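Q: I'm writing a short explainer about Kinetochore complex Fta4 of Sim4 subunit, or CENP-50-domain-containing protein for a general audience and would like to include a description of its predicted shape. Could you first generate the structure from this sequence?
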Amino acid sequence: MPKPPPTAAPPPPTVVSIKQDWLATQTRLLSQDLEPSRAWRAANDDEKGNTNDNGAPIGLPDKAVDDAIWALNHRLQQHAKRVYSRQATRHIAEQIDQLYWDASNRAAGTGLEDEDEDGDDEFRGLSWGADLVDPKIISNLPPTWDHDAASQRQSQSYPTEAATYSDLVSQLKSLSSQKQALSSRVSRLKRIKNLLESFDTTTPSTPSGEEEEEEEEKPKLQDNLITRDGQIEKELQKMRMLLARVGGRVDQLQEQQKPKGKRKRTATTGNGEEPSEAAQDDEMDLDAPSAAFDGQRKLDVLFQKAFS
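A: Of course. Here's the predicted structure. Afterward I'll give you a sentence or two in plain language.
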């Protein structure tokens, strides 16, 4: 047969649980049914045959005694349920625990004031409930137990415990320094992760059976990078098409401007002949700056309409 799995050890009892158990035990004792003792019943039985001066029997009948005891126990149980409830017991235990800690803190504070008056400020001691995970408290721990006269006497009486304390304090300070170093490294890595999350293109996969938590979408920088099928490539493709269309329109405008820019010279030369082609080209160059200016202005208007 397979061995059953070992059961986990119960947690150590707290002051509240100990006080609550003690109060529950006392309330059970107070809530027990009352019963006449055997000596009283024997004496009552002996008196049943006797009478007083008036002729009434001195002893009480058993039925009357049982009825009275039953009524008394019934009232007692009702009182116990109302007064000694579990909530009331828990509340009283918590009050006892709080009073215990307050008294301990007051005693520790009084001792610290006495040390301050004596001028001993090297070690102020630990208050009750001090968190030994706090780096400040760990740094204030004395490395050895014999930090004052009383502690020196205790250290001499219990050398093994004093050595154990020194080892534990050194380990605790070493672990505290390692924890601080790891905490600073974790915070630095988290900052780096937050800075690099914008460049992440993968979608996180969630395990089956678990619902995806709704998180705010962070802006991605990947859309602005030059990648295959990216946004910039699409915009460049649109720009190429637009430039082709604009180039075609500019060519049309230049073709339309050419007849207007040419000024045909009907004047003849001194010999009665028309001017040569070179002379005509020189005359056309005179109007070229104005035609180029009109074309540039129209091109600017087209670009402005296209991108507005």
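A: For your explainer, you could say: The first helix runs from residue 15 to 30.
Q: Perfect, that's easy to follow.
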